[in-house]
């Protein structure tokens, strides 16, 4: 296997980094995040039309570039470095793959070219407040209990009598970019409790009645969240019929999405580390740069190793996302959390001021782990899927086991005995 980046991938990285360096400084990030859409619409248009960003991994027959997940991961790493507020993850990592996998020919033809061109943004709305569970990253999503379990609550769907169509009612509390997306993919239960099954529906909030979208105050302004309320809202079933395995499709989409999120987290961690190295090289104490002190060097070296290890895991997951996405995301989120915390510390009193750019990265780390983690559950679920603790009656797995590295190996050995 050749692990080197191709010339095309290097060109994607170079072009995107130059553009974002010019138009996405920390002050630009704050200004864009505080707009009504939550991102710079003009910059998003340019990224879509000039660079083909949202259609990077979509087939050419639907207006995409026709690249793979690795190229999209390269782009996500660069957007993570700049903390670019954009609907890229919601549209290209969550919604578009599900439309491509489950949609009818007519639905794909109508929606994917508009997504690839940047004219339509989309997001996945799941009830229950746990996107990671719905995607099968922190728990088994097959039972569909995260979507309401067929009982009161969650999101419910009923067919329209005498017509081809559906009506949805319920609430999704934390929808990424839900306040601005032009298309909602809503996971809802149909059939009531006896025949309950989870289905995906297309909702066009600009034209459908009964849609209430409320942008929520989020810890990370660059990751806007919204509460979606549907009140007898007209919806279109995604796919040809209601026999499709939606929970399986969500789980299949979960690991590629986790690989892209891991790449984005690695980009943010690398940028935070670079900014910290630059600062300690210029900040003097006792007549010398604080970066020359051995204790500071050791801390930065540990961070560098952690970030590079997470980067390797993220790109391995992009190359083979079937089983590695959740673990790569866990490693990247941990690296981001550790690096940003150290960045605040090593910036000293300046780093503790709320307005400093270090807090943009610190809040991204905290918010991403709340939204897509936590790390110990990502690792625990990966360990359960791998069967590391299967059949261990004498030594049950610890609730918050990290299930990685030498500890996991020793645990697996004890189980085998």
Automatic annotation (TrEMBL):
<keyword id="KW-0285">Flavoprotein</keyword>
<dbReference type="InterPro" id="IPR046373">
    <property type="entry name" value="Acyl-CoA_Oxase/DH_mid-dom_sf"/>
</dbReference>
<dbReference type="InterPro" id="IPR009100">
    <property type="entry name" value="AcylCoA_DH/oxidase_NM_dom_sf"/>
</dbReference>
<feature type="domain" description="Acyl-CoA dehydrogenase/oxidase C-terminal">
    <location>
        <begin position="259"/>
        <end position="385"/>
    </location>
</feature>
<dbReference type="GO" id="GO:0050660">
    <property type="term" value="F:flavin adenine dinucleotide binding"/>
</dbReference>
<keyword id="KW-0560">Oxidoreductase</keyword>
<feature type="domain" description="Acyl-CoA dehydrogenase/oxidase N-terminal">
    <location>
        <begin position="6"/>
        <end position="118"/>
    </location>
</feature>
<dbReference type="InterPro" id="IPR009075">
    <property type="entry name" value="AcylCo_DH/oxidase_C"/>
</dbReference>
<protein>
    <submittedName>
        <fullName>Acyl-CoA dehydrogenase</fullName>
    </submittedName>
</protein>
<keyword id="KW-0274">FAD</keyword>
<dbReference type="InterPro" id="IPR013786">
    <property type="entry name" value="AcylCoA_DH/ox_N"/>
</dbReference>
<dbReference type="Pfam" id="PF00441">
    <property type="entry name" value="Acyl-CoA_dh_1"/>
</dbReference>
<dbReference type="Pfam" id="PF02771">
    <property type="entry name" value="Acyl-CoA_dh_N"/>
</dbReference>
<comment type="similarity">
    <text>Belongs to the acyl-CoA dehydrogenase family.</text>
</comment>
<dbReference type="InterPro" id="IPR037069">
    <property type="entry name" value="AcylCoA_DH/ox_N_sf"/>
</dbReference>
<feature type="compositionally biased region" description="Polar residues">
    <location>
        <begin position="401"/>
        <end position="410"/>
    </location>
</feature>
<dbReference type="GO" id="GO:0003995">
    <property type="term" value="F:acyl-CoA dehydrogenase activity"/>
</dbReference>
<dbReference type="InterPro" id="IPR036250">
    <property type="entry name" value="AcylCo_DH-like_C"/>
</dbReference>
<feature type="region of interest" description="Disordered">
    <location>
        <begin position="394"/>
        <end position="417"/>
    </location>
</feature>
């Amino acid at each position: 296997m050749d692990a080197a980046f191709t010339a095309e991938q290097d060109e994607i990285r170079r072009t995107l980094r130059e553009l974002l360096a010019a138009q996405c400084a920390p002050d630009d990030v704050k200004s864009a995040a505080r707009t009504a859409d939550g991102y710079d619409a003009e910059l998003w248009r340019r990224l879509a039309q000039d660079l083909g960003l949202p259609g990077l991994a979509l087939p050419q027959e639907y207006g995409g570039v026709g690249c793979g997940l690795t190229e999209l991961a390269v782009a996500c790493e660069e957007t993570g470095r700049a903390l670019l507020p954009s609907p890229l993850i919601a549209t290209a990592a969550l919604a578009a793959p599900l439309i491509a996998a489950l949609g009818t020919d007519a639905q794909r033809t109508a929606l994917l070219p508009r997504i690839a061109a940047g004219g339509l943004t989309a997001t996945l709305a799941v009830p229950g407040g746990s996107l990671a569970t719905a995607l099968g990253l922190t728990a088994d999503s097959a039972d569909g209990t995260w979507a309401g379990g067929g009982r009161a609550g969650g999101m419910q769907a009923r067919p329209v009598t005498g017509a081809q169509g559906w009506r949805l009612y319920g609430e999704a509390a934390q929808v990424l970019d839900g306040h601005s997306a032009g298309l909602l993919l809503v996971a809802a239960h149909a059939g009531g409790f006896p025949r309950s099954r989870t289905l995906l529906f297309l909702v066009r909030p600009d034209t459908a009645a009964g849609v209430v979208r409320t942008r929520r105050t989020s810890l990370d302004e660059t990751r806007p969240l919204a509460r979606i309320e549907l009140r007898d809202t007209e919806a279109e079933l995604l796919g040809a019929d209601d026999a499709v395995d939606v929970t399986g499709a969500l789980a299949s989409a979960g690991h590629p999405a986790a690989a892209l999120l891991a790449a984005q987290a690695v980009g943010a961690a690398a940028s935070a580390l670079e900014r910290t190295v630059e600062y300690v090289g210029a900040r003097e104490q006792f007549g010398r740069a604080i970066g020359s002190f051995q204790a500071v060097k050791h801390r930065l070296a540990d961070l560098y190793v952690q970030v590079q290890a997470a980067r390797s895991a993220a790109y391995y997951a992009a190359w083979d996302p079937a089983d590695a996405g959740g673990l790569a995301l866990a490693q990247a989120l941990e690296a981001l959390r550790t690096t940003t915390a150290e960045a605040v510390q090593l910036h000293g009193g300046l780093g503790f001021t709320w307005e400093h750019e270090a807090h943009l990265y610190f809040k991204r780390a905290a918010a991403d782990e709340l939204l897509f983690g936590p790390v110990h559950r990502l690792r625990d679920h990966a360990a359960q899927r791998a069967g590391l603790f299967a059949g261990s009656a004498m030594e049950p797995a610890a609730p918050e086991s990290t299930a990685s590295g030498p500890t996991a190996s020793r645990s697996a050995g004890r189980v085998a005995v």
